[in-house]
Amino acid sequence: MDGFGLTEDDGKGKKRITEAKNHEFEDASSCENDAQPVISSGKLKCADSGSVLSGIPRLARSRETRPGVIFVFEKASLVLAKFKNSYQIINPDEHVSFMKKHNLNRSDYRPDIIHEVLVRLLDSRLNLCGGIQAVYVKTIQGHLIKIEPNLCVPRTLKGFCAMMSQLFQKLSIKGSGRSKCRKLLKMVQNPVTMHLPVGSQKIGEQ
User: What is the pTM of this model?
Assistant: First the structure.
């Protein structure tokens, strides 16, 4: 998975740290029998409103755009597949028989990588101090996801995959409490450059 960051002129602000509750999604039933082929392309249906994401945002941020770092991660292994009763993100630890049936390479389906990256990034001192403006994730299928920096990422891989599966189907996920009207995750239009500030400095692009 590749990634690069973008920076703007740093603004002065007070350091503010707020404790957040970890959110666990309800575990989706995992059934590998009668599994259907992987969804590799096609448009996702739009929903009238995003689903609600429980939990308390890490920081109370205003709607105004603030200077900060924008992270872009590419080639994330987030692939949605249809199983008997639900859609799920392919996870080699849970879908062994499914991957064997469709002759899928285990190394090509690693949602744990982007999960670990997001947990560490959004728990970093940079983010706790309000230094991250936004995070964009582009999947290996070309879908582009915008993630707000005050999102509480589920600590377990299963919870993270359930959240992403819900995102792919609903196209957005809203927060609760003070951020109940704000979308913490949403599918956005490509290319990612159209969402970046003009004149931003690119660092680590490959």
Answer: 0.68
